[in-house]
Structure formats: structure tokens, C-alpha cells
Amino acid sequence: MTLPQRIVDFVNPRAKHQFKGRTCSIRSVGSYVPEKILTNHDIAQRVNTSDEWITSRTGIKERRIAAADQYTSHLAANAALDALKKGDVKPEEVDLIIVATITPDMPFPATACLVQKIIGAEKAAAFDLEAACSGFIYGLEIGQQFIMSQTCNTVLVIGAEKLSTIIDWEDRNTCVLFGDGAGAAILQNRPDSHGLLTTVMGSDGNKGDLLCMPAGGSKNPANGDTIKDRLHYLRMDGRETFKHAVNAMYKAAREVLNRCQLKISQIKHIIPHQANKRIISAVSDRLQATKDQVFINLDKYGNTSAASVAIALDEAAANGCLKRGDLILLVVFGAGLTWGAAIIEW
Ligand SMILES: CC(C)(COP(=O)(O)OP(=O)(O)OC[C@H]1O[C@@H](n2cnc3c(N)ncnc32)[C@H](O)[C@@H]1OP(=O)(O)O)[C@@H](O)C(=O)NCCC(=O)NCCS
């Protein structure tokens, strides 16, 4: 699809003057999910829940769980190698690695540095970014800045999580929702594409308590009491989070559409954060999107936080759903609170 020039000018005014038409495109995507499948029936053996309750409230049927000796850096590196292979890019070509995660291997060094070592991206700078489930879109926007400014030619953005390590497996309110996995995208300038047209990022720290892990940082360093009180696990007010997710995702999606002067009918695929089918339905109803436009794979993986949209994007690409020139809307929401949306010409 050829976009009217006015859209390109509006979205990316710098391109014409400062960057001489340079754009930032996704060259390739990749993903990795661990082999082990944990079904709703399996969880019903541990806590008082049922497949019927989980499916009707969330749409999730199963999720993947990483092995004990498989850490976030391993999941991230596997996704990165998949994206590098699909894009025919060598690890040595990568200038920057950004890993979005709330479950780093350890507080430091950054998981991105561990990935740099595993994949052999010798010349790459590397850092982690923490925007919870919104991390992948935050990563795309940050990566884009480095491409547009010509600081980097190749940026590797990864969303990766081993959420099973911060789930309270005794808490039925949360343990049914999440899973492990990783997705990755390679960003480069591609002269024949508009690429990443526009991105919105937002946050509201006033509502940080709705979804958090209370201990393990400088506020509540690990000690016997924090462990006894189960403060090293994710905590969530589900109903409030749900309401804010729908509002924030709808507003972010509307904003990127308005910026590009696009109607929802011009969007080929909507790839939302895979948290809950009811959240996705509420957002797409408000956007007046059709069911065919919305990509959903949360039934297989649950909510994989920063990895979710990246895994979905890779699956949509692998299924042959995404064609050159298609306009794709990504929209996310997460702890922080954080949210974001992006429109990409594939
Ligand atoms: C968590 C969520 C699925 C709960 O669904 P819900 O429709 O809001 O649930 P309700 O509030 O109607 O029902 C809660 C009841 O179900 C019970 N319940 C909670 N989890 C349950 C489970 N796994 N199995 C059975 N019952 C459960 C609760 O104890 C509560 O019981 P009570 O009414 O006797 O106190 C939903 O709120 C949600 O998805 N929120 C957003 C979460 C999310 O996506 N977070 C990540 C954002 S990035």
C-alpha cells in the first residue's frame, strides 16, 4: 500500500529535512517458547480453579513454562537467533541490543549483556528496559530513534520473560494468567518502506500498586520477612487493572490512528497485548474493528508480558498473515501503569 505523502510528512517530519527519507523498518521477527506446556487442567490440580473458569474469564487454555536451568537470557537469545536467521543478519552486524523484561536473570548485569554474549554480537551495546507488558513497543520506539539518527544500522529489540519465577502458584487470582517466552525484532533502515510510522508511549505511576512485585528492590530488600509474606511474587488488582487496560489501550490506538489520519478499516491486522481475550474484545469493539483484523494467540501462551506482542507478531508473520505493505496496529498495556501503540507498514 502506498501511503499518501501527507501521512509520512506528519508522522515523521524529521525524515524529510534531517534524515533525508531514512525510515525504520522491522527487517525480521523471531520467537521462542519453552517446550513444557501447563494446561488449565494442570493448574486446577494445584489451586481451586477450573478450565471452564479460566477459559470463560480469560480465553487462556495453556501456557509455556521454562525449565529450571533455562533463564530469561536463554529464551531471549533463542528468539534473537531466530530473528537473525530469518532476516539473514549476522550477530556481528548488530549495533544495539535492547531487552524488555521484568524478569531479568538477575538485577545486574543486564540480561541484554548476557544475550550479547550468548549470540556473539561482539560489537553491540546492550541494555535492559523495564516497562512491563508495554516493553516491546517501548523498545521499538527507542530502537527507532537510534536508526533514524544513524547512530545504529541494526538494532535488536527483544521482549523476554520467565514469569513462572515470580508467579505465586498458590494465588489463583494470578497464577492462571501468565506464561514464559520471548520474541525479537530486527530494526533497520529499509528505503522502500515507511516502516514504523508512529508510536505512542504513556504511563501513570499513581496506579503502580495495581500490578507490582513488592519486594526484591531497594524498598524491600530480600529478608526472612519478605519471603514469609510472599512479597517476591507478582500482585494484582485484577478488576481495576482490567478497566485501565481497556481505556488506555483504546486511547493509545486511537491516538496513533488519528496521527496517521487512518481509519480502523485501513488497518490489516491488530496485534494487541495478549493479556485477556475480554480485554482485547472490549478494545476492538470500541475501535469498531472486525474479528478478522484481530490476531489472538493467548489461548496457547497466556500473558507473556514484554514478549507477548513480539511472539504474536512472529506467529502472524510465520502464518503468512503479514504481507509487504500491510498496515499493522500494535497496542499494549502493562504494570507501571504503562501503555503504548504503534502503526507499522510491514
Ligand atoms: C483476573 C480476572 C481474569 C478476573 O476476572 P473477573 O471477571 O474480573 O473476575 P470477578 O471479579 O468477576 O470474579 C472474581 C471472583 O473469582 C474468583 N477467582 C479469581 N480467580 C479465580 C480462578 N482462577 N478460578 C476460580 N475463581 C477465581 C475470585 O476469588 C473472586 O471470587 P469472589 O467473588 O468470591 O471474591 C480479570 O479481572 C482480569 O483479567 N483482569 C486483568 C488482568 C490482567 O490482564 N493483568 C495483566 C495486565 S498487563
Helix proportion range? 25-40%
Strands of the largest sheet, in order across it? Answer: 1-7-6-4-5
Number of helices: 13
Average pLDDT, rounded to a whole number, is 94
Q: What is the CATH topology of the largest domain?
A: Peroxisomal Thiolase, Chain A, domain 1
Helix-strand blueprint:
Layout (H helix, E strand, L loop, with lengths): L4 H7 L1 H5 L7 E8 L3 E4 H5 L6 H8 L3 E4 L6 H16 L8 E5 L10 H9 L5 E5 L5 H14 L6 E7 L10 H4 L5 E8 L7 E8 L7 E2 L11 H5 L6 E2 L1 H22 L9 E4 L4 H11 L10 H4 L6 H11 L8 E8 L3 E8 L1
Parallel strand pairs: 4-5, 4-6, 11-12
Antiparallel strand pairs: 1-7, 2-3, 6-7, 8-13, 9-10, 12-13
The structure holds coenzyme A.
Coenzyme A binds next to helix 4, helix 8, helix 10 and strand 12.
Tell me about this structure.
Helix content is 35%, strand content 21%. With 346 residues, it is of the alpha/beta class. It has two domains: 5-192, Peroxisomal Thiolase, Chain A, domain 1; 197-345, Thiolase/Chalcone synthase (Peroxisomal Thiolase, Chain A, domain 1, 3-Layer(aba) Sandwich). A hairpin with a 3-residue loop joins strand 12 and strand 13 (338-345). Helix 10 packs parallel to helix 11 (277-287). The protein is globular, with a radius of gyration of 19 Å. The mean pLDDT is 94. It binds coenzyme A. Coenzyme A (COA) is lined by residues 49, 53-54, 57-58, 133, 172-173, 176-177, 236, 238-239, 241-242, 245, 275-276, 303, 333-334.
Keywords:
346 residues, alpha/beta, Peroxisomal Thiolase, Chain A, domain 1, 2 domains, five-stranded mixed sheet, four-stranded mixed sheet, 13 helices, 13 strands, 35% helix, globular, binds coenzyme A
